[in-house]
Amino acid sequence: MSWQNLVLKPVLRWRVKRRAGGPPDVAEARRLAARMTAEPRRPPGWRIRETGLPIAGEWIEREAEATLQPSRTLLYLHGGGYYFCSPATHRVVTLALGVGADARVFVPDYRLAPEHRFPAAVEDALMAYRGLLAAGIPATRIVVAGDSAGGGLALALLLSLRQAGDPRPAAAVLFSPWTDLAATGDSLIRNNRSDPLFDGRTVGKAARIYLGATPPTEPLASPLYADLAGLPPLFIQASDSEVLLDDSTRLAEKARRAGVEVEYRAWHGLPHVWQIFANFLPEGRAALDEAARFIRRMAP
Description:
Elements: H1 3-15, H2 26-36, E1 46-51, E2 57-62, E3 73-77, H3 91-101, E4 104-108, H4 120-134, E5 142-147, H5 149-164, E6 171-175, H6 187-190, H7 203-211, E7 234-239, H8 245-257, E8 262-267, H9 282-298
Helix pairs in contact: 3-9, 4-5
């Protein structure tokens, strides 16, 4: 365990977890995410370009790539409980994956709850994916990725594509995906003291912001309750000390039973979605490097 991780976790406990004991506060979560956003240094020749195609969002790409073309493409769905964060809050992750995987990255600015509850985010993710196909990018050159709620949304997208008969992407990369909005995982209690970010007792309450009247076991909201057969290969990273650990562990087990190829690794003693701290945390950089190698392998 790095000294950076030992420093980071108490900071997160003070700045984030101590606020997490009561009912979720949407406005406060959005303010905190904005304050904690770190702008990464861009390697020479790379840029961030805002766009409205296929929906509002931003491209992470080489400066020479002025138009859509059939190159390796990552569709990244940011986390934030479906009610906060944005493409800008996740640029540390998306830029690192773009450079590491030599891929163009599209990050849709999908609609957030409570203004837009389920299934708005799923609809936007589906629109973004279909927009990439319509632009001429083959499904075999697209990898879908996401963290936390964005990881659950990535799985919901895969399920929607299967249901509609659309071409499936080459693979999916999931960082600590939120797959069970019914909040039944034992790790919500078992890891409540070790998780420096979240209070496991509030996860179900946070889910209601997105769900509204939708049952928490709806498969497109909670992919853990879906039939996972026929999904593309899944790459999953989670921390063994986070409250959402069982969301990843049970997903990996169920997907394997359904015949899905799964690469799953539980990293030790790290915060939820530690990849977003890669500017400071060596384990974050190592995790993103590992994910980038998987993307290159799955979409050669």
